[in-house]
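pinned: reference chain
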Amino acid sequence: MSNRRRSATPSPVPGPDIPALSTTKTVNLALQGGGAHGAFTWGVLDRLLEDGRLEVEGISGTSAGAVNGAMLAYGLLTGGRPAARDLLDRLWRRLAKANAFGPLSPSWLTQVTGSPNLDCHPVYAGFDLMIRLMSPYQFNPMGFNPMRDILHGLIDFDLLRRSQQIRLFVSATNVNRGRLKVFTGDELSVDCLVASSCLPFLFQAVEIDGEPYWDGGYMGNPTLHPLIHDCRSRDVVVVQVTPLQRPALPTTPTAIVDRINEISFNSTYLRELRAMELINRLIAEGRLSEEEAGLNRFFLHRIEAEAAMNDLGVSSKLNADWGFLTHLRDLGREAAGHWLDSSFDRLGRASSFEIGSLSQ
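pinned: its structure tokens
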């Protein structure tokens, strides 16, 4: 990736659904993954699009965040905000429809308990045991991945690859090299979205140009580097899905493995945030010039509902029941609304959260 120095935030291009220039601000979006919990991000994006005061320059996404980001970018390119909202809605309706006829559709027990967690679901319990004894190369020898069918026909990737208006960055983990791969520009395809959301316990690695890839969350959830170095907007808005902290100590085998995965998925993200904070501080103190850093000072923002997400077990990431997805969507819309009310005026001027607070 280039390290060109960024100029001032670009002026948005007016359109039929875009408010006056004086009311809009340009941002970059960093969208975390999280399976069905990505419906929270759907709600966040839906509320931001409804508000209409934000223009999007760059989107970095992992797993469900990458899929949401692709829908957002393609919708904005083809029909503006209304098209983007419609495309996101169509995506999550497809996921719910696939779930309704799948093995993890709500059982009578989950309906009785009212919990979105699938720990008591008989199929989930059996599947959880199976993946500890067998790999997807054994129980899924044909390499079936439902994400391909869900994405089919939603995006014209040729148009997305040619776009110069919105830059999309999709993170995946190169299995053999143990490195982060960021797909962008001419590399964008349905394969890279499937690769970015490929959980190795459930699906076979996705091969692209002879290289096998797993979920990008292991190396960047999501990566912030391209938004800082390859985009001009100074503002990065992170939509956080995966909890950084959990109040309860995991004591069961499943809970321990799940928490290890959460810590792993957040580790690179936290390191990048702290590196960004250090660069900002050095520039502010005059110990590092913007020319030496190769970029301007930037501002960080975060939209989250960690307290509510803490109540959800990791098994609920596989719960694509429409009622649960719309609950998460509404939670995301509420969180985005609070953020707009409290932080919109800080865009372009200051960060709206302290990175140091994440470790407290």
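why pinned: Confidence is low (pLDDT under 50) at residues 1-22. The first strand starts at residue 25 and ends at 31.
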